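Anyone able to model this chain together with iron/sulfur cluster?
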Amino acid sequence: MRFEYPANVCFKCVRCGLCCGDTEQKARHILLLKSDADQISAQTNQQIDAFAVKAADKAPYIYEMKKKQQDGKCIFLLSEECSIYEHRPLICRFYPIELSTNEEGAYIFKVTDECPGVCRSEFCDLGERLQPEFFDALLNLARDRFGVL
Ligand code: SF4
Ligand code: SF4
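re: yes, here you go
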């Protein structure tokens, strides 16, 4: 399987919580696959409608996580920590990475610079420089969840 990824990108989550909800710049949609929602429901003993709403025209995602009214953050972000970390949805496992395909059918990984844990400097000492194995593992995770890639 062929994939392309940006070279010389370092990433280490600094737990800022930016990706867990709205910012001044943008409203965030925390989208869920059915398998994401089912797993969170099973692990938290909550009905899906307690933490998510139906998402229209976002296939293959069918739900969107509810956010707290007071700060626009995911309802599972408690004291700056993800309270369902082991069961967080695929989209959260991917962030700050996005996956798409090109005309030749190759998988293309992009990294968003919105995340303060991303660094592209060759002198970066923030975290690990992302290697092919990192992207390979993400691709396998997505394949498992989607079942079709
Ligand atoms: S925005 Fe980046 S650094 Fe901040 S919590 Fe999300 S992944 Fe971690
Ligand atoms: S599920 Fe966890 S990682 Fe994902 S947005 Fe909510 S608090 Fe953040």
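Residues 3-146 form one domain.
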